Amino acid sequence: AYDENFGGMLLAEEEAARQAKALGGMPVLVMRGHGVMTAAATVAEAFDLMYYFERSCKNQWLAMASGRKLYSVADDTAEKTAKQWEEYPELTKNHFAELRAILDEEEPDYRL
Q1: pLDDT value of residue 8
Q2: Quick one: three-class SS letters along the chain?
Q3: In whole angstroms, what separates CA 35 from the centre of its chain?
Q4: Residue 76: its pLDDT value, please?
Q5: What is the pLDDT of residues 42-67, one digit of tens each?
Q6: Whole-angstrom Cα distance, residue 73 to residue 50?
Q7: Residue ranges for the chain with pLDDT beneath 50
Q8: How far is CA 31 from the centre of its chain?
Q9: CB atoms inside a 10 Å sphere around CB 28
Q10: Largest CB tally within 10 Å, which of 52, 66, 70, 78?
Q11: What's phi and psi for 6, nearest 5 deg?
């Protein structure tokens, strides 16, 4: 989702309600002039949404910077791929658990 009318932090109930409405059931909200917000049932899901959204944006930016004609996948392929992600929620849990395991090993002080 995209919000062209970012009105500040969610300190006021009205702004929180407006941004929730702007999400419109989508898991990612790009707030013009501010940043990105993800909404999910768990921290792991929200992290994965942000992680893959950021990677997708970076890849899109790099592709566009090449100046070459861009290739788009067919709509049915995009739909199929989206459904595959939704059908495997354990991928999100496993990804986040592995990242925490790496952090535990390399930077255990983060838990203090």
Answers
A1: 72
A2: CEECCCCCCCCCHHHHHHHHHHHCCCCEEEECCCEEEECCCCHHHHHHHHHHHHHHHHHHHHHHHCCCCCCCCCHHHHHHHHHHHHHCCHHHHHHHHHHHHHHHHHCHHHHC
A3: 11
A4: 97
A5: 888 899 899 999 999 999 999 999 99
A6: 22
A7: none
A8: 13
A9: 18
A10: 52
A11: -55, 125
Token digits of residue 82: 């989206």
Q: Which two tokens stand for residue 28?
A: 């990612």
Q: Where do we find the tokens 């992290």?
A: 47
CA distance linking residue 69 with residue 63, whole number of Å:
9
60-to-19, 31, 53, 65 alpha-carbon distances in Å: 25, 18, 10, 8
Residue 14 is predicted with a pLDDT of 83
**Rounded to whole angstroms, how far apart are CA atoms 37 and 23?**
9
Residue 43 one-letter amino acid: V
